[in-house]
Design goal:
Structural class: alpha+beta
Number of domains: 2
Largest sheet: 6 strands, mixed
CATH superfamily of the largest domain: P-loop containing nucleotide triphosphate hydrolases
CATH topology of the largest domain: Rossmann fold
Strand content: 25-35%
Bound molecules: adenosine-5'-diphosphate, magnesium ion
Strand order of the largest sheet: 6-7-8-3-9-10
Order of helices and strands: EEEHEEEHHHEHEHEEHHEHEEEEEHEE
Number of strands: 18
CATH architecture of the largest domain: 3-Layer(aba) Sandwich
């Protein structure tokens, strides 16, 4: 026997998946592999086909063409209840008349798991989502975040190989959402289940994912790690959907960069300098006027109209300046500077 480590197996393989609803092409040729234990996010605007892909993986929707494999087995024609997959939806869909423990146990009861085992697995799942001691409450006696955790426990109790989550944090307010993002990621690491997570929120995707698939009208525009997607967006669409794109194209690219094509510089890479200091050899300099200064506590956004024609956004941490000082910069002539390695091509 070889002692070498076992390579990660493929949990999900989608091959040229397509789905039409009448004239609407919802999913238009999606191919994707998800590794065992991976946290993969489908990110894209509303209507780009994310939910439809998830529903096809779960088996709630039949693809028009293409195939779906789970753990190497073609399940394209297999009904949902015979797929080793669970789904968590945005509207938790808890049974309001049942207490928390009964809600979590429900799936096991349907599968005729004996009562004692049911009970211990449900309690274990509640502990995983940090809801020990909440078993006797009704869903109406829980906060939104707690209800979402019950929904998660109800899926985890089945120990599925794959968990599909469709905008599960969408109904929560921002603070709670940010907290749940961290918790959900911790839970996923602890249980080691493959997660396919759908969101339209780029920050959420960057925060939680091992890899992100960016959706644009039924297709995947780019797949990569959060860093790859953010630092090297493959298209202007990806650059604009994930973060502030700051595009330099055509005449402006020629004037400022001396280069052809479309380029992006992320706002936090740009320094705002008063006057016209000389750049180093590795630096780019672009002169302009500050149109707007937006103070945001931790950081400030400068919206700068370049003499060459484009508008760029620069973000600076507020280490020293006061809001009064920053506000007085409106209308001033500045030089924007960045390292040339931070100008990245985003196609043409
Ligand atoms: P997302 O989850 O990214 O918002 P969806 O997968 O829900 O996108 O939808 C993709 C496209 O397919 C949209 O144009 C939507 O209106 C359409 N669509 C989704 N489900 C149906 C359906 N059951 N019948 C008709 N059109 C649908
Ligand atoms: Mg959706």
């Amino acid at each position: 026997m070889s002692a070498s480590p076992v390579p990660p197996t493929t949990a999900i393989r989608l091959v040229d998946l397509r789905k039409s609803f009448g004239d609407v092409v919802a999913v238009d040729g999606v191919s994707l592999e998800v590794s065992d234990g991976e946290f993969l996010t489908l990110l894209g605007p509303s209507g780009s086909g994310k939910t439809t892909v998830l529903r096809m993986i779960a088996g709630f929707e039949q693809p028009t063409s293409g195939t779906i494999e789970l753990a190497g087995v073609d399940v394209t024609r297999v009904p949902p209840y015979n797929r080793d997959v669970n789904t968590v939806f945005q509207d938790y869909a808890l049974f309001p008349h049942m207490d928390v423990l009964a809600n979590v146990e429900y799936g096991l009861k349907v599968k005729k798991v004996p009562k004692a085992e049911r009970r211990s697995r449900a309690e274990e799942a509640l502990a995983t989502v940090r809801l020990e001691g909440y078993g006797a409450r009704k869903p109406s006696q829980l906060s939104g975040g707690q209800r979402q955790r019950v929904a998660l426990a109800r899926a985890l109790v089945n120990k599925p190989r794959v968990l599909l989550l469709d905008e599960p944090l969408g109904a929560l307010d921002l603070k709670l959402r940010e907290q749940m993002q961290v918790e959900l990621k911790e839970i996923q690491r602890a249980v080691g289940i493959t997660f396919v997570f759908v969101t339209h929120d780029q920050e959420e995707a960057l925060t939680m994912s091992d890899r992100i698939a960016v959706f644009e009208v039924g297709r995947i525009a780019q797949v990569g790690t959060p860093t790859e997607i953010y630092e090297h967006p493959a298209t202007p669409f990806v650059a604009g959907f994930v973060g502030v794109s700051n595009l330099l194209a055509e005449g402006v690219a020629a004037a400022v960069l001396g280069r052809e094509g479309i380029w992006s510089v992320r706002p936090e890479k740009i320094r705002v300098m008063l006057g016209s200091p000389a750049p180093e050899a590795s630096e780019r300099a672009a002169a302009g006027v500050i149109r707007e200064v937006v103070y945001a506590g931790m950081s400030t956004r400068f919206i700068v109209d370049l003499d060459a024609g484009a508008t760029l956004i620069a973000v600076q941490q507020n280490t020293h300046a006061t809001s009064e000082e920053l506000n007085s910069m409106r209308g001033q002539r500045v030089t924007l500077m960045w390292n040339t390695e931070h100008e990245v091509p985003v196609g043409s």
